[in-house]
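Second opinion, please. Please look over this fold, written as tokens:

===
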Amino acid sequence: MPNPKQTPVRTPYDILAKLLLRELLEPVGTVELEAEMAATPRRVDLLFSRTAVGHLPPLFDALFPEALNIVEFFHQAPGREELLSATLKQLLVRDTRDAEAMLVLLCAGKPETLLKETEAKHRAGAMTGLYDLAPHHRTVLVVIAELPGTLETLMLRLMGAGKTLKRAIRDVKALHPEHLLRVRAERALVALHLDPDYSSSEAMKGMLHNYKELYQDWENKTREEGRQEGRQEGRQEGRQEGRQEGRQEGVVAAQEMLRTLLRVRFGEVDAEIDAALSAIRDLQRL
């Protein structure tokens, strides 16, 4: 049995998965990352309290049917010990929050042994990759590598590995720059790059290398937005376009990076803070 006092091991893929899923779920509820259970040092990867109806793709409505839902991420295939640990967290959530909770296990690869030992069954009428454990477990296991390559599964496939991840990145790059799924994926990646708490480790740097094309696309888009805003303001103020463009490009890019980091760390950016950022025209003040 895992030692409950052990510090949880957070892999770079776990951290990104939490950020991606938070981007998707926050519009319809409250998301807590590494939520601590009362009177115990155990933490769940992600605790989702649903407070609104709608706004989620049908797949996620099916995965998170309860008011309270626990998500545990596994970049490596989990075994019996990992399932027991996750189930204990589920029981602790029920006791501390006084509500039943659905347990969702997101697995990059297929845990063949675990599926066999638990006699898990493919969910009737559902897409490939979804397995229900015994009904009284209130647990669904998602094999990300088996999910169909659709828009509905894109955010989950970005949490995958190998060929699954490469295809997901290609699918994101094929989306319009302003497509909501692309914007959400880019926000999670930018948060990893900008926050030293996330990006400083060698393991994280290695993982981020897999997503470098998406991050570079975001940087290029931000620079282009800076150029366009610089030109517009230059025309409005009657200044020399090239001179204004260069100065504004750096300011707007820095403003956007700060907004992204604040949004991922603290939720929506306060209107007063956003206005203060927009009012700054000196790059050194940022």
User: Anything to note?
Assistant: The longest strand covers residues 29-36. Strands lie at 29-36, 43-50, 68-74, 102-107, 121-122, 130-132, 139-143. The radius of gyration is 21 Å.
